[in-house]
Amino acid sequence: MRLGCCYNPHIGGILDPEGGPAEASVEFDRLIAKLKTGVVTEIWLQFGADTNELDRNLSRLEAYLSEESRKSRKSRGKERGKEREVRIIGSLFIPSKSWLAKMKFRCWSGCYLGTQDGEYLSSP
Q: Is the dihedral of CA 50, 19, 44, 101 positive or negative?
């Protein structure tokens, strides 16, 4: 059985109107707590337009997963066992005129694309 969880790497970024570093830290800590259960095999990323925050948090996540993998190999020693692989799954939306209109009118909760007149929402 494969279980996944969601993660919003855009929380606390420059496009997040309400969050900051504290909220970003809480979101990352929640993800780590889920990963520590040992049952998560997929992480689904929230869509957003803050590429700097996405890059920063994916680097943090990859470093964490790499360290956990190293610890796992070391603790197993010479035992043969399958290493748990965690897939990171993201999505990309092609900004059509109708999709942009929907996002300007009522953007999905937790989806940070900037202001209604911002660069991302300005044109297809």
A: negative
